[in-house]
Design goal:
Elements lengths: L2 E8 L2 E8 L4 E5 L7 E7 L2 H6 L5 E4 L2 E10 L6 E8 L13 E5 L1 H12 L13 E2 L11 E5 L4 H11 L6 E3 L6 E3 L1
Parallel strand pairs: 9-12
Antiparallel strand pairs: 1-2, 1-5, 3-4, 4-7, 5-6, 6-7, 8-10, 11-12
Helix pairs in contact: 2-3
C-alpha cells in the first residue's frame, strides 16, 4: 500500500508531492458515526519534517486526510509522529449560525445540516468545496423534530448519527482533491 501526499499550493489548491511506501507504523481508525483518524510514524528527517506540515493532505486507502500535528516524540528513536483527521472533521469548524428547526427523517436532517453549513451548497463564505454529499436515500420509517442554534455542526452530526444509529462513509471523489460523504 502506498500513501499519496499532496502539498498546498494556495487556498485549497493542492498538488501531488510524494508517494510514500516506507513507514514504521500506520494506524487508521475508521468511524461510522464520526470522522476518521490516522497516526503515521516515520523516521525523522528534514525532508519528512517539511513533507508532513499541518494542512498537508494524505490519501490513505482512497480517503483524504489532513495533517493536524507532526512532532518528534522521542529524540532517541528519531521518529516523527504524524496525526490527522479525514476532511469531514472540518465540520467541527462550522457553527449553526441561526435558528435551525426541521421535522423530517433523521438521515434527511443530518444531510441537510451538512449541506447547509459545510459542503458545496453552503453560502460561499462558509462552504468547504472539497466536501460533498450526494442525495440521501431515506431508510427511517418515522420523522423526528430537531431544533438547534449555535451548535457545532460536527458535534451535532456525530450526536445525531449516534442517537439514531446511522452513519456515513467518506471516500475520495473521482473528480479531484475532495471527499464524498455517503
Amino acid at each position: 500500500m502506498d500513501i499519496q501526499v499532496y502539498g498546498r499550493v494556495s487556498g485549497f489548491n493542492y498538488e501531488h508531492v510524494a508517494t510514500v511506501d516506507l513507514w514504521k507504523s500506520l494506524i487508521v481508525t475508521e468511524y461510522f458515526q464520526d470522522v476518521n483518524t490516522f497516526e503515521l510514524t516515520v523516521k525523522y528527517s528534514q525532508t519528512n519534517a517539511n513533507l508532513y506540515v499541518p494542512e498537508t493532505l494524505i490519501e490513505i486507502r482512497n480517503v483524504l486526510y489532513y495533517v493536524n500535528d507532526a512532532r518528534v516524540d522521542d529524540l532517541e528513536t528519531s521518529e516523527l509522529k504524524v496525526s490527522g483527521k479525514s476532511l469531514m472533521a472540518k465540520a467541527y469548524d462550522r457553527v449553526i449560525d441561526k435558528n435551525y428547526a426541521k421535522t423530517d427523517k433523521p438521515e434527511v436532517i443530518a444531510a441537510n445540516l451538512f449541506n447547509s453549513y459545510v459542503s458545496n451548497s453552503a453560502p460561499a463564505a462558509r462552504r468547504f468545496d472539497y466536501l460533498k454529499m450526494p442525495t440521501v436515500n431515506t431508510f427511517s420509517s418515522s420523522s423526528v423534530i430537531y431544533q438547534n442554534s449555535y451548535g457545532v455542526v460536527g458535534t451535532e452530526l456525530a450526536t445525531f448519527m449516534d442517537s439514531y444509529n446511522f452513519g456515513v462513509v467518506e471516500k475520495k471523489s473521482e473528480d479531484g482533491i475532495s471527499n464524498v460523504v455517503e
